[in-house]
Every structure is written in C-alpha cells, then in structure tokens.
Amino acid sequence: MKKALITGITGQDGAYLSQFLLSKGYEVHGIVRRSSHLGVADHRLRWLGIADDVTLHDANLTDLSSLLRVFNEVGPDEVYNLAAQSFVASSWNQPVLTANITATGVVTMLEAVRLAAPNARFYQASSSEMYGLIQQDRQSESTPFYPRSPYAVAKLYGHWITVNYRESFGAHASSGILFNHESPLRGIEFVTRKVTDAVARIKLGMSKELRLGNIDATRDWGHARDYVKAMWLMLQQEKGDDYVVATGRTTSVRDMCRIAFQHVDLDMEEFLVIDPALFRPAEVDILLGDPSKANRILGWEAETTLEDMICEMLDADLDRLAVKAATARVRA
Ligand code: NDP
Ligand code: GDR
C-alpha cells in the first residue's frame, strides 16, 4: 500500500485529495498545525466522511524538526505540499507570515524530503497568481511571471525552489500551476464561496445584500475535485515537471455572481453593493490558462463547468443554512 503525506490536509484541496487517494488505495497521512479551536481542524474531512480514514500528525511548515519527525514516522512515497497562507488579500496585511509559510515553507519541505525521504515524489502547489500582470492571451508553462501580491511573490519562490531541487538534486519534484478552483469546501473568504453563501442567505431571508470589490476581474475557475486528480497524475509520471491546470475559459466576477442569483431566481442588481474598501492594492485583472500540456501528457481535463459548480456550491450553502436556521428555531 502506497503512503501519501499531505500538508494542508485540512484545507479545500487537502480534503479532496485525501478522498481521491483513499479511493486509489493509499494510506493517507496529513500534518495539522496546532489550533486553539480543538476539534474544528478536520471539519472538511468530516464533511466528506473520511475523517476516520486518514492519520493526522502535529507539525508546522515553519518547523523543520517537526516535519522530520513526521517523515520518519510515516516514510511517505508521495508528498503533496498544499499548505500555505493562501488568501491573496491577507498577504498585504501579513506579508512576513505569508513569506514564512508560502515561500520558506516550501524549501523547508524540500529539505525534509531530501533528508528524511529522498526517494519520495514531491508535489508543489504553485499558482496562476504568479502570472499577475501578464499581457499574453493565455498563460502556459512558458509564459513569464509578474507577481502582483506578497502571496504571489512567495508562490514564485516556492515554484522556482521546486524547479531548482529537481535540477540540483534530481528530485522527482513537480509544480502544478493551478488556476482558481472552488467547491462547497472553499473557504468563505474567497469570492465564489462568499457569493454562494451570501446569495443563499438572501434567498432564505437572512441577509439583504452582497458586498464585493472589483467585479470586473476575470478568473479561469474549475472544480477542486477535478484538479486534485491532476496533482496525483503529475507524481505518476517518470520524471517531475511543471504543468498548467486550468479549464481554458475565463469569466468575470460579475458574470459568476449572475449565475448564482439566476439559480435562485433573484435579480442581482437589487442586492449587489460595490465596496471600495474591498478593492486590492494591486489586482490581477485577467487569468486564462492553457492546459494543453496537462491534456497531452497527463491525459487530464476539467470535467465540471462553472455553472454546475456554482449551483452545487449554492445548493450546499442553502442546505447548510436551512439546517442552521432550523436548529436555532428548536433551541429558541
Ligand atoms: P486552503 O486555504 O483551503 O488550505 C490551506 C491549508 O494550509 C490549510 O490546511 C491550513 O491549515 C494549512 N496551513 C497554513 N499554514 C500552515 C502551517 N504553517 N503549517 C501547516 N499547515 C498550514 O487552500 P486550498 O486548499 O484552496 O489550496 C491548497 C494550496 O494550493 C495552497 O498552497 C494554495 O495557495 C494553492 N493554490 C490554490 C488554488 C485554489 O484556487 N484553491 C489555486 C492555486 C494554488 P489550517 O486548517 O490550520 O488553516
Ligand atoms: P484569488 O481568489 O485572489 O484569485 O486567489 P479570490 O476568490 O479571493 O479573488 C478572485 C477575484 O475576485 C475579486 N473580488 C473579491 N475577492 C474576494 N475574496 N472577496 C471579495 O469581496 C471580492 N470582490 C471582488 C478579487 O479582487 C479577485 O480579482 C485564489 C486563491 O485560492 C489563491 O490561493 C490561488 O493561488 C489563486 O486563487 C489561483
């Protein structure tokens, strides 16, 4: 039985990747950082019904000794580095922390692999945010980078140090340049989930408005369930490499919102409020990926449309909020 070790297992991608690897017969381990909120860390794993099927270890990406201990305990065949301070907007408020986890954390992980599991295959969660202020129509593996946030600058370091360990030490290290991917397990601070949560609240009479920043930005949005398969496929290749993972279609935040409002027969214009405080100090205006290398070499392609995904997310939020409202009524 192959063993996988996942950092960021409590996040959106960590949960879906765990589910996918379990379905492939893997023994799945993950690291969890200490939190003052005991018992909530694994809520996504519980939502997927797999919390009892994975083994969690207490460690932190900023603490090499903790990682070495876990590597020695587990002896992983495959290592997926998904942990990060992953919210772009927060990276202007916490730039040093973002660098420590999202940049230096990657080389700490690569050192842990080199010292404690040199034969393990390594996946790094790189990001389309690295392209930033690009002029090209579609972004591929050969498009130059121009990061626009402390988050994107940190991811660029993580990307290049992964390439460097592959070239310097012959590591089986792959970097997935993933475009935005979402799901019902997406953090509520990200725009798709913020929209589906707010639209569900408006529909249920629990809220009166949806407050957003720049709705002219466009993103290439796919489903996390589809994207974790690409991560695994990268580690099944003979050699490590870099791959763009995207749908090849871009949609504005405005049009994504419209899909959500239409799904519950509401008029977006009645509820949408533009709040200048939510605009970012520097924006990435357009992202549109070219996944042809992943199509060709990995045999991967996105399976879920944006429309289907937004409807799935909105239905999940409607269910969750309806249960919450019913529980509150019983308690009252
Ligand atoms: P999430 O924000 O949902 O998850 C991030 C995970 O990192 C959480 O499990 C979090 O733990 C963990 N983490 C943060 N800091 C540390 C630390 N110091 N030590 C250990 N664990 C830590 O992100 P996603 O699942 O959406 O994304 C996964 C990865 O992919 C991230 O690296 C992200 O930057 C990258 N990415 C994501 C894309 C997307 O659209 N989703 C696109 C491209 C790249 P905790 O639960 O304690 O907070
Ligand atoms: P992003 O995702 O920054 O692309 O990073 P996010 O959903 O936060 O923003 C997408 C776009 O929507 C605009 N926007 C708003 N965003 C948020 N969060 N809240 C708002 O109220 C709002 N109004 C408008 C943003 O300005 C932006 O243009 C995600 C993360 O998962 C990263 O970790 C990952 O690397 C990239 O995707 C690819």
Please bin the fraction of helical residues.
40-55%
Q: Helix segment count?
A: 11
Task: Give the helix/strand class.
Answer: alpha/beta
Task: State the CATH topology of the largest domain.
Answer: Rossmann fold
| Number of distinct beta strands | 13
Mean pLDDT value: 96
Fraction in beta strands: 15-25%
What can you see in these coordinates?
- The protein is globular and about 60 Å long.
- The protein folds into 2 domains: 3-182 and 221-245, NAD(P)-binding Rossmann-like Domain (Rossmann fold), CATH 3.40.50.720; 191-219 and 250-286 and 305-331, UDP-galactose 4-epimerase, domain 1 (Alpha-Beta Complex), CATH 3.90.25.
- It has 332 residues and is an alpha/beta fold.
- The strands form 4 sheets. The chain has a 7-stranded parallel beta sheet, sandwiched between helices. It has a two-stranded parallel sheet with strand order 7-10. A two-stranded parallel sheet has the order 8-13.
- Helix 1 packs across helix 8, helix 7 (191-203) packs parallel to helix 9 and helix 7 packs across helix 11.
- Helices cover 43% and strands 15% of the residues.
- Strand 1, helix 1 and strand 2 (27-32) form a beta-alpha-beta unit.
- It has helices spanning 12-23, 43-47, 64-74, 90-93, 95-116, 150-169, 191-203, 224-235, 253-263, 292-298, 306-331, and strands at residues 3-7, 27-32, 55-58, 78-81, 121-127, 173-178, 181-182, 210-212, 218-219, 222-223, 242-245, 251-252, 272-274.
- The protein is built from 11 helices and 13 strands.
- The structure holds NADPH dihydro-nicotinamide-adenine-dinucleotide phosphate and guanosine-5'-diphosphate-rhamnose (GDR).
- Guanosine-5'-diphosphate-rhamnose (GDR) is lined by residues 86, 88-89, 127-129, 179-180, 189-191, 194, 212-215, 217, 219, 253, 278, 280, 283.
- InterPro entries: GDP_Man_deHydtase, NAD(P)-bd_dom, NAD(P)-bd_dom_sf.
- It comes from Sphingomonas naphthae.
- It holds the Pfam family GDP_Man_Dehyd.
- This is GDP-mannose 4,6-dehydratase.
- Its cofactor is NADP(+).
